[in-house]
Specification:
Helix content: 25-40%
Low-confidence stretches: none
Length: 534
Amino acid sequence: MRDVVIIGGGHNGLVCATYLAKAGLSVTVLERRHVVGGAAVTEEFHPGFRNSVAAYTVSLLNPKVIQDMDLAAHGLRVVEREVSNFLPFDDGTHLMTGGNGLTKRQVAKFSARDAERLDDYDRVTGAIADVLRDLVLQTPPNVVQGGLFAALPELLKMARLGGRLNRLDIDLQRELLDLFAMSAGHYLDRWFESVPVKAVFGFDSIVGNFASPYTPGSAYVLLHHVFGEVNGKKGAWGHAIGGMGAITQAMAKSAMAAGVEIITDAAVTEVIIEKGRAVGAVTANGTAVRGRLVVSNLNPRLLFGKLVAANEQPAEFNRRINSWRCGSGTFRMNVALSELPDFTSLPGKDRAPHHTAGIIIAPGLDYMDRAFMDARRDGWSKNPIVEVLIPSTLDSTLAPLGQHVASLFCQHVAPELPDGASWDDHRETVADLMIDTVNRYAPNFKASVIGRQINSPLDLERTFGLVGGDIFHGALDLNQIFSARPMLGHADYRTPVKGLYQCGSGTHPGGGVTGAPGHNAAREIIADIHARRI
């Protein structure tokens, strides 16, 4: 008998477990796979070549979580990219972004006006990102029933939220509304005139988002990707030495140091519910692990669709959670390379700053829009969007000397193929297309590939529980964020089943390797225990 049973040893499960254990609770984490980490793991995929399998870059990992878990002492080291992004274009030109005035100098090649607008754009988005950054570790105001007494704590949360928003002047409040409601394309069209500049900012709006940059609400996804930081530098992106698995291995060490029991190869098949209360979990081998309460790190659709009996859920809740929208249009690859890519727009096989960047093959918003339309109609884009990261340029532990590994984050592909086709029958064809796409901009790329690992949306679901390949555990739609994540009335990490909580990316603030949902869920659980509500 444990105090807490946590289902899923991904990063949020490990974060939640550590905070609960430090509060004096006995905690057991049950992980389906042979290794903890969820989608943030590092594995060898070709002899001598290791890489992050799914999640692949660092920025959103919350500084408070890093500090509270003392992850540096447990081996975590994150290094910043030398250049933020590199976009090669069909006409042989390129755009790079980064610090020390690099972005402005590069943008000026395409538009002097846009270069002058950058400071204002950074000021506006930076101010709004600061507000959202403050909200990441807060429990959203929850819609509750039961009269004024029950609603009072939520009204106080609303008042605190209002105070934060009042830090913004009226012009910034208008921008905030635009960023929540508008498409990224239309928002960027108001700021900039040149295609390359809009492409580099617009790419963030479709990362993990099966949508066009002209889909209403996509501007928020753009914003979701800019409120991170690396080593105290806001908006920066970096690489964990040893890959993303280094993050979760450090978390596991922190958790075990706090007294957490972690059991791998322990797939959960059922949440035990007795008299309307969650009291444990049953694993695939029939073992029952019982606890005072249960916490799920799974996609909400998996939890309530497969592990909790329908008759234990309110009917309307069950109907809505089964409609939880998933599917991020993601096709994820790792490749082993004999040499670095030699880009037509910036020639050279010797390591250079642009090789450390996020290399984005998406030369314009219209290109991204067509990629989405193709995928909706045909199952995948004829001209896909590919982000290439080569972490071995920053981390020599991942590949043999003189060789490299690259992460390919590819979009758009349909989570489910049309006409009942299976991804198992098309994954190799689409993988070839992704490599050919990069090869158009770096003609030595295809010949340099000596090994590859492919994860279609179906593979991501089967391996990591990412329903429809959804890296966020649910789309960041307006009706699936903040107080509506995963549903109005359950934004406080509590579920309709007594004693059952959620701590995964299907709760606020959403996806990405943040640790914030795990942190927030633990706080609410500890509050319930202190108030003797459990």
